[in-house]
Design goal:
Blueprint lengths: L1 H6 L1 H12 L13 H21 L13
Length: 67
């Protein structure tokens, strides 16, 4: 599955290249394949989920995340 690839070391590396350093999978967005689009969407969703874990919760509450 794409979600598993996004969490793999290779997927995290490709995510960093695409989202942080502007690497393009294709010259134009219209040239992206369905799998490439799904990967980018999953990568963004995973990144946003990880960021939500770093936000502080209520004062005095400890958050424990199991994956």
């Amino acid at each position: 599955m794409i979600e598993e690839f996004v969490k793999s070391p290779e997927g995290l590396e490709l995510t960093t290249l695409c989202l942080d350093y502007g690497y393009r999978l294709e010259e134009h967005p219209r040239d992206l394949t369905r799998d490439q689009i799904n990967f980018l969407i999953a990568a963004i969703a995973y990144r946003l989920k990880q960021l939500s874990y770093t936000r502080p919760t209520e004062k005095g509450v400890t958050r424990i995340v199991f994956e």
